């Protein structure tokens, strides 16, 4: 195996502490959280105390000014343990950067320390019942009225939506201007007119709360606009590569974990007088998966390296998201097959991971949209 050289001994120490934290605070409870449809709210505060949230945020806003590899460690350990209910990465690596990069000093001081501590859980609401891939079709509006914006509309499929205290809402400030009329707003969950719909029942990722959100004459101070009016689409395009990188990192971690579970299982399980792992088909499947995961791992690490240098471009992040999540689903499917009937039983981690993996090809931009982005970059 090619050794990973990107992570220092400090990153590995952090990895040990993240793994211990998750094994103690999340693994024993995750099955119950799947039944509840959301994780325990307290986990956010505990994770904040343990330094696992928004570690990249500068110290002046309560963070540790850590490099992105610390975020990658959290994503990898959550993925390795199959804790798909935990939406830390969306909070830390997707929502927080919008506030950090486009929020005013007042907004940064007001909110970022609470994101770091877990006092506030966050979400980002782009998708609407009528607009997913085509974000220019967003119908939610934000109309300036004196010193306040008045938001009307509805959102769906919002991760962390049920527990969220603070949501970035994508809305049109100038509906006639297309992409150039799109803006981003910070909306606190207790603002009058903001309601949460039912928690959506999903095929997998059952412990991750995914909700509808409704906005009826929701008034937010003008200062809650992130950056400039009309620049929302440009900000989304700027930040989406990091979101796609996080999905790719999680995909590889999940595939690697499934390979290890399958190796253990096929060594133990016997048929026709020998271990399943001794059949040539099994050995070849395991060898193929190990090879593809190795190729993917090298690609993830190269993308991480580029990202640390500020050089991860949009098409490359799209390649990782599409190829990594396709690989994850392919590996999970093979792993279920090698488990036989037990691979289809919910109590087996491989069954859960298989169901959980499917959405990776859909959210954060579908894999078809990723291919459009890649194609557009060179054809
Ligand atoms: C569990 C889960 C969590 C999510 N979390 C969030 C969240 O936190 N915040 C948020 O805002 N959204 C979230 N989403 C929404 C997600 O990002 C969208 O579902 C996704 O972008 C696809 O949009 P859609 O569902 O409207 O599908 P559509 O856009 O209707 O697509 C349907 C099909 O058409 C294809 N298609 C569409 N356009 C093209 C094209 N130009 N070329 C080729 N094929 C195309 C798509 O690839 C897809 O196969 C989540 C979704 C799920 C399921």
Automatic annotation (TrEMBL):
Residues 9-119 form the Acyl-CoA dehydrogenase/oxidase N-terminal domain. Keywords: FAD, Flavoprotein, Oxidoreductase. Residues 123-218 form the Acyl-CoA oxidase/dehydrogenase middle domain. The keyword Oxidoreductase applies. Coiled coil: none annotated. Its cofactor is FAD. Residues 230-377 form the Acyl-CoA dehydrogenase/oxidase C-terminal domain. Transmembrane segments: none annotated. One of its GO terms (molecular function) is flavin adenine dinucleotide binding. Belongs to the acyl-CoA dehydrogenase family. This is Acyl-CoA dehydrogenase. It comes from Pseudomonas borbori. The lineage of its organism: Bacteria, Pseudomonadati, Pseudomonadota, Gammaproteobacteria, Pseudomonadales.
């Amino acid at each position: 195996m090619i050794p990973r050289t990107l992570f220092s001994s400090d990153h590995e120490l952090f990895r040990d502490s993240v793994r211990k934290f998750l094994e103690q605070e999340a693994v024993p409870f995750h099955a119950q959280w799947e039944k509840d449809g959301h994780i325990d709210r307290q986990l956010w505060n505990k994770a904040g105390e343990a330094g696992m949230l928004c570690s990249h945020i500068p110290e002046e806003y309560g963070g540790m000014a850590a490099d992105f590899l610390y975020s990658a460690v959290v994503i990898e350990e959550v993925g390795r343990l199959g804790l798909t209910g935990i939406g830390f990465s969306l909070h830390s690596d997707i929502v927080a950067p919008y506030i950090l990069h486009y929020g005013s000093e007042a907004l940064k001081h007001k909110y970022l320390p609470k994101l770091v501590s877990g006092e506030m859980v966050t979400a980002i609401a782009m998708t609407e019942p009528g607009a997913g891939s085509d974000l220019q079709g967003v119908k939610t509006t934000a109309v300036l009225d004196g010193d306040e914006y008045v938001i009307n509309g509805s959102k769906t499929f919002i991760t962390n939506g049920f527990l969220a205290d603070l949501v970035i809402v994508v809305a049109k400030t100038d509906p006639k201007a297309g992409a150039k009329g799109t803006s981003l707003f910070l909306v606190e969950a207790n603002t009058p007119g903001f309601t949460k719909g039912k928690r959506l029942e999903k095929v997998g990722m059952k412990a991750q709360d995914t909700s509808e959100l409704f906005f009826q004459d929701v008034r937010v101070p003008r200062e809650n606009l992130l950056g400039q009016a009309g620049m929302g689409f440009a900000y989304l395009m700027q930040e989406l590569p990091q979101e796609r990188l996080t999905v790719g990192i999680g995909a590889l971690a999940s595939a690697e974990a499934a390979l290890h579970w399958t190796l253990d299982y096929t060594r133990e399980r016997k048929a026709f007088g020998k271990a399943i792992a001794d059949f040539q088909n099994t050995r070849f499947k395991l060898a193929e998966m190990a090879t593809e995961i190795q190729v993917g791992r090298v690609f993830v690490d190269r993308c991480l390296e580029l990202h640390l240098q500020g050089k991860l471009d949009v098409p490359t992040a799209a390649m990782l998201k599409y190829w990594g999540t396709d690989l994850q689903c392919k590996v999970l499917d093979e792993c279920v097959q090698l488990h036989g009937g037990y691979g289809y039983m919910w109590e087996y981690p491989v069954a859960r991971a298989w169901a959980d993996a499917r959405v990776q090809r859909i959210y954060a931009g579908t894999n078809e949209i990723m291919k459009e982005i890649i194609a557009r970059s060179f054809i």
